[in-house]
Amino acid sequence: MSPRTALLALAEILAWWAALTVLWLVLISTVDTLELAVGAGAAGAAAVAARAARRAVSGP
Amino acid sequence: MADAVIVVALLLVAGSATAAVAVRDPVRQALVLAVLGVALAVLFTVLQAPDVALSQLAVGSVLTPLLLLLTVRKVKRRGQRKGREQ
Amino acid sequence: MNGWTLTAALVLGGGVGATLWGVATGPLRRRVVAQNLSTALACPALLLLSQGYDRPSYVDLALVLALLGPVGTLVFARLLSGELAGDPPRAQGVTWAAAGLGAAVVLALCVAVGPGRAMAKLLVVGALLVGGNLVASRALSGGFREVSRG
Amino acid sequence: MNRRTRLWLVAAGGGGLAVLLVAACLELPAFGGASHPYGDRAVRASLSRHTANTIASVNFDQRAYDTLGEMTILFAAVLGCVVLLRQTRDEHRARPEPEEVAPPVRRYALVVLPVALLTGLYVIAHGQLSPGGGFQGGVVAATALHLLYLGADYRALERIRPVGRYEVGDAVAASAYVITGLACLIGGTAFLANTVLPYGTFNTLSSGGTVPLLNAAIGMEVACAVVVLLARFLDQAVEIEEESGK
Fold first, then answer.
1. D54 CB contacts (<8 Å, ≥6 apart)?
2. How many domains does chain D have?
3. Which of C28, C53, C61 minimises the CB distance to B53?
4. How confident is the prediction along chain C (150 residues), in pLDDT tens digits per residue?
5. Which residue on chain D is closest to C66 by alpha carbon?
6. Where on the phi/psi map is residue D209: left (φ > 0), alpha (ψ -120 to 50), or beta?
7. Which residue of A has its CA nearest to C63?
8. One Pfam annotation, family name (chain B) (predicted)?
9. Closest approach of A53 to chain C, Cα-based (Å)
């Protein structure tokens, strides 16, 4: 994996992660530290899944 | 009058459940079953049981139709194969 | 009983009742459209009930239905593509009507709850609902090319 | 036994059942009354343990042992399914053909997949606070992965779904439930008794003692079980073919 593709992959995952973390903040009713940590973790997992799904459909 | 929405939900469940029994073809039955799932979820909601309604939505909207239609597809493929060989 | 639950009862009785009739009778192309509409109408009803009972956590039900309802229609569109290819469903009018009803309900609820996180959640549900049902309707009318298996 | 006798037998049995049901329904308490002996006690117990969603408290605290049984039923059902729907010696795998999907449908699947997965995780994590819990969230999360089959084709789904790992995950999650129960037995008073962990602040993610942990275990178990179950059904419907001539 060249640095360029690695950077692109990181950018794709980060973009999904940011969007999904915002979605988590919309879904929950009260914000506290633990809630943020769990949300960031769940959004990270979903972001990795989003990239894997995109690659599975349309190639790397 | 206060329970109008409960009566409507009960009637929907009774109607869709009867239709699910009356329809004979499994594919069409799966369609009616999907609507029955939604009606049941609404009934559970109006009876203030949202946890059960959520279970019903999760299972009834995708999982049950998918399992049924995959089974129908398998059975049909086997039938086609048998038909070709005879 | 307040205006919200009364409207929900009307949507359920009129809308979902009609789709029940559509799904139980007629040709296959009408039945799949009716199945899609049943989730498109039940989801606004659940939102109205959530507001009527004054229970914001009930919005989760509508959220799950807005996500999974169109996916359920995709199941039918995908696995019945062979049967539907010869006789594709045409239901632009009712689909857009249901989408309009969903959007109207979401907007009315947004006005009722006022700006805030709850309103953003309602808008997310509304976007998923309307977008999902339009895509599911598109999938029914020729979203999948007929293949022997796959 | 001829047809006529069988019909009479069914009519007699059905009639008897109907009479008993009607008799039982006449004795039921009226619909929507104000007296809820079980509900009042369940709510009191759940509030004393800082669990906002009483249903989660009933499922994972007051009657956690029942839930262990239900989880075992699902586990056994999926195990039986895996054994029954395996590829037998007279069957072979045909490569699934790619499917042509309309671009809007494919884009929808790719966007909704992570959103549905996140919603599933949200429902699992907030099981003790709002409606939902491990079972509902697990099913939603597992369904999310199958959007790849619906919006693309089976080969795309197979690329992101190593079934073996989900089988391991299923077993690990089931054991995690039992291990939590044993930890309660060792550190507290009884098997699955919610007395080990602090109950936390009411209506936050960490409230309810062991309820969130058991919820997470059930969520993982159900998600993995549904994925494995659907994998067996999809294999049979899409890939596995009987050898010709059999």
1. D42, D43, D46
2. 1
3. C61
4. 689 999 999 999 999 999 999 999 989 999 999 999 999 999 999 999 999 999 999 999 999 999 999 999 999 999 998 888 888 888 888 999 999 999 999 999 999 998 988 999 999 999 999 999 999 999 998 777 654 444
5. D116
6. left
7. A27
8. MbhD
9. 16
